[in-house]
Design brief:
heterodimer; A: 405 residues; Rossmann fold; 2 domains; seven-stranded mixed beta sheet; globular; B: 270 residues; mainly alpha; two-stranded antiparallel sheet; 2 strands; 73% helix; 2% strand
Chain lengths: 405, 270
């Protein structure tokens, strides 16, 4: 009895596999445009993937899943926060589903690997994250970067923080040990020089670290004026919590240089947010028409306002669709050319894609969190202190030649 | 000390019931979430600390009574699949009840902030946890070594057939051991909540460490679990002071090194 059952299950499985596999190939032959959302549903960014997916779906649904008068088929795959799984699934979607447009994944280290797939398979790739290499040393014609350049971010954060705290010259850094952390750290130190900042310590931690007591002990021993974290998501939340538990904040200011915004702040109790300064690619009170309508409909659906993750996916999808519109075609080369130099007034304000590097030039946000007593409502986390859009200076630009198709 | 607490509970379950409990991490997470719920409802951390682990122990009781009991004869594969499935169900259950977004929970007012110990700076709450976990480990040890029921439990680890031949209800013993193991996981979770915060996946990291502790101390060896928990905690702290980046990997490096020299664990398999 037992064996029979198992065999039946195998049969059903085989039937299901053929049933699912063939129509996919047939469908791809219709006149639809297939877009892949490569989002992490497992691994270190498993909490972010579902948010990315929300944003991307909302952008597509706004257009009734149509562009150029043709239906869009949205395919999504789990990138697993791993280069191996992400590249394999991206290739599968390109070969098996006919996807020629990829958005994602979330981790900059993994996205660099996917960018190589895009180059080899000659498909369009949009990405948002903190590595400078996609629009820098490893730039090519097919990949585009939505997030602010790490230089823009570092400049916005350091300049505006020093304006408010001119005496805080001793900095201790806590850096996520992968592509994104290294990029932002490099420019925080560069910009720091112009303010005479002394970096009394810089510790690197692996992605997915949850035990920060050892790092914080070392930071406290350095007696800094300020601790600046260059990490993201769960790491940033765990770090901020531990820094508070050790009694460093609110006595000292803490900077989260590259934060997800709402999604991280909501996980921190108001006491922990006291004297917390935040740099982010998007904050939900951004005063732009696109942000206002997006935040409203997102919040109606999901209660919490959107942070960086859904907003980036939303805006990248809009950017790709604007590329289709401008090109008047879904030909890969035509869309790439249309995206190069594309100008939009989108979710963060005026944005322009630099054709020479594929870096999006756009504002970056700097926030100061409110103490509990100043919060007007539960989600009133912070004020936008400033925005900055200083582009990467020529002498740092590593993308010398974007190359040909 | 927290590691010892988790390892002790898991080792008890492994030893007495002879099953790999992959749901141990999830029970840890449930303990943390129950604490926060009770504290938010009643406003007292201390009541939460008492109530939450009892809730987890009841959950453990139910799991053993309704589920694991049916699988003793089925072999390790089934037990493993059952407890692993259970851990996923519990994690998803947490998402359903408390939502997917992480939560920060502050320590009680008098234990907030840090303390200057002269040679280093340390949060008061962590000092409290060290003392509390040490006390719990000691009490559990007292119970196992000095009470009649504790002796029966240890006898159950040594020789189940003999214990049941002596007229002791072995099923009741299994249920009690599982509930006690769950209680220890629950209180470890509750104590950890203000340190690490809460997220539905918080049990996964802890489960890995708990298994390391159990393997290192010797499968089912209770004293071994306590010693291994302490050893790993101390090794991690020492390495962190000199080479921060390696503080996570050292847990597994210590295990690999010890198992190479002593495959049966520090104190041998019971």
């Amino acid at each position: 009895m037992d064996k029979l059952k198992r065999r039946d299950i195998l049969k059903i499985g085989a039937l299901a596999a053929t049933g699912l596999g063939f129509p996919a190939i047939l469908r791809a032959q219709a006149k639809e445009i297939v877009i892949l959302g490569l989002w992490d549903q497992t691994g270190a960014f498993s909490d972010v993937g579902p948010l990315n997916d929300r944003g991307m779906r909302m952008a597509l649904e706004e257009r009734d899943m149509k562009v150029l008068g043709r239906p869009i088929r949205y395919v999504t795959r789990d990138g697993a926060t791993q280069a191996g799984a992400s590249t394999r699934r991206a290739e599968e979607a390109v070969d098996g589903e006919g996807a020629r447009f990829i958005i994602g994944p979330w981790s900059s280290g993994v996205a660099l690997a996917v960018s190589e797939v895009a180059k080899r398979k000659k498909v369009v790739h949009l990405f948002s994250g903190g590595t400078e290499d996609i629009s820098g040393a490893r730039c090519h014609r097919y990949s585009f970067q939505w997030a602010a350049s790490p230089y823009t971010a570092a400049k916005t954060v350091v300049d505006n923080f020093m304006k408010a705290n001119p005496k805080a010259k001793r900095w201790h850094l806590l850096v996520a040990d992968y592509a994104f952390g290294w990029s932002v750290e490099k420019y925080v130190k560069e910009v720091g020089k112009t303010h005479g900042i002394e970096f009394v310590g810089a510790d690197r931690h692996p992605l997915g670290e949850r035990e920060f007591s050892n790092y914080v002990q070392k930071a406290a021993a350095n007696r800094p004026d300020v601790v600046a974290m260059i990490n993201f998501g769960g790491d940033a939340v765990a770090g901020a919590r531990e820094i508070f538990n050790f009694g460093l904040t609110p006595r000292l200011p803490l900077i989260m240089s590259w934060s997800s915004g709402v999604e991280e702040l909501v996980q921190l109790a108001p006491e922990i947010r006291d004297n917390l300064w935040v740099g982010t690619n998007f904050y939900y009170t951004a005063d732009t028409p696109v942000a206002k309508s997006f935040v409203k409909s997102y919040q109606a659906k999901f209660k919490l306002p959107p942070g960086y993750a859904p907003s980036a996916a939303y805006s990248m999808t809009r950017m790709l669709l604007a590329g289709f519109d401008k090109a008047g075609s879904d030909d890969v080369q035509a869309v790439v050319k249309a995206l190069e130099g594309l100008e939009m007034n989108d979710i963060v304000g005026p944005m322009r894609v630099d054709g020479a590097t594929h870096q999006t030039l756009r504002p970056y946000f700097f926030l100061r969190c409110k103490p509990k007593s100043a919060m007007k409502h539960e989600l009133d986390f912070a004020d936008v202190v400033a925005t900055g859009d200083a582009p990467l200076p020529k002498e740092y630009a590593a993308c010398k030649d974007i190359g040909s198709f | 000390m927290l590691y010892a607490l988790m390892g002790l509970g898991l080792s008890l379950i492994t030893g007495v019931l002879n099953i790999p409990n992959f749901a141990h991490g999830a029970l840890f997470a449930v303990g943390a979430y129950l604490l926060v719920t009770v504290v938010n409802a009643l406003g007292s951390f201390w009541i939460g600390l008492v109530v939450a682990p009892v809730g987890v122990a009841l959950l453990g009781f139910a799991i053993e009574y309704a589920g694991i009991r049916r699988l003793y004869a089925a072999g390790h594969d089934y037990q493993l699949l059952f407890t692993f499935g259970l851990s996923l169900i519990l994690a998803e259950g947490i998402i359903l009840v408390w939502g997917p977004v992480g939560i920060s929970h502050l320590p009680p007012e008098i234990l907030r902030g840090g303390m200057d110990l002269g040679f280093t700076f340390y949060p008061k709450y962590r000092l409290f946890v060290m003392v509390a976990a040490g006390l719990l480990v000691f009490l559990t040890w007292l119970f196992l070594e000095k009470t009649r029921y504790g002796a029966i439990m240890r006898a159950g680890i040594e020789n189940k057939e003999m214990v049941s031949l002596l007229g002791i209800d072995i099923h009741r013993l299994f249920t009690a051991a599982f509930a006690l193991g769950a209680y220890l996981a629950g209180i470890a979770g509750a104590l950890t909540a203000p340190i690490r915060g809460l997220s539905p996946g918080m049990g996964v990291d802890m489960l890995g460490i708990a298994f390391v502790v159990v393997a290192l101390g010797g499968l089912g060896n209770l004293l071994g679990a306590i010693a291994a928990g302490l050893l790993i905690g101390v090794a991690q702290a020492l390495v962190a002071a000199y080479w921060t980046e390696a503080s996570t990997v050292v847990i597994y490096a210590v295990m690999a090194a010890v198992l190479l020299v002593r495959p049966q664990g520090l104190f041998g398999i019971r």
